[in-house]
Amino acid sequence: MTTALTGDFSKYPASIRGLFPHLAGETLQLREAWVVYARLFMEKKEFTDIMAERLGGVLGMFQNLLQDEMFLSIARLTDKDSRGQTNLSLWRLLEAIPEARDNSFAHNVPIAMHQIYESACNIRKHRHKRIGHFDLNVSLGDAILPRVALKEIRILLELIEAFLNVFSREFDDTTIRYDFISGHEITSKAESTVYKAQAYDIFESEGKIPKLEWRRRALK
């Protein structure tokens, strides 16, 4: 279930008023996943190495989980309806086109939506054949899924945010800042814990703290 963005959406057309907060909330969560991923794995190799040294294989697992979560989020946001299911996706927002004041809205919005949809094609393939299902040929190595570069995720995220803000400008004369989130704000406690562990090991190696003192204190 998506997390709805809170706020006043009363100016939005009734056709999308209840949908928009959920789509905006999902996009905000996608942005959060991206900034955390970027902070942990893309900003500085030295920082990533320190985190990996302290967290071991857990960090690698977390990296894979974050990647797949971003794939899932983008796939959900760009899914069309299927025969047996109506989806909450960006496509639903096109229902508000008749309510727009801007004459170019009806022309530009579907073009932007199709650009996002086509750009996310490889990600939806991963969701369908690797994450959502174990495609036999892919699982056995007889078929290869298209590679998704990290910059594709970033570009898609920015396209989705811009698309949502087209509706915000048109119906509410405002925009939503999806990019205000800092990865460091989210990871700061984990970073502090890692650096404290590093300092502890230094003190322990210098004989300033008894060996395994942390374990004795933890078991009290």
**Shape verdict:** elongated
Quaternary form: single chain
The profile of the biggest β sheet is:
none
Ranges where pLDDT stays below 50 over 5 or more residues in a row are: none
Secondary structural class: mainly alpha
Radius of gyration using CA atoms only: 22 Å
The helix content, as a percent range, equals: 55-70%
Distance between the termini: 40 Å
Strand content range: under 5%
Number of helices: 10
The pLDDT mean sits at: 94
The helix-strand sequence is HHHHHHHHHH
Number of strands: 0
Question: How is the secondary structure organized here?
Answer:
Layout (H helix, E strand, L loop, with lengths): L13 H4 L2 H22 L3 H11 L1 H22 L26 H15 L1 H11 L4 H4 L10 H23 L10 H23 L7 H6 L2
In words, what does this structure look like?
About 65% of the residues lie in helices and about 0% in strands. By secondary structure, the chain is mainly α. The longest helix has 23 residues, at about 150-170. It starts with 13 loop residues before the first helix and ends with a helix.
Briefly, what is this?
The protein is an all-alpha fold and 220 residues long.
Features:
220 residues; mainly alpha
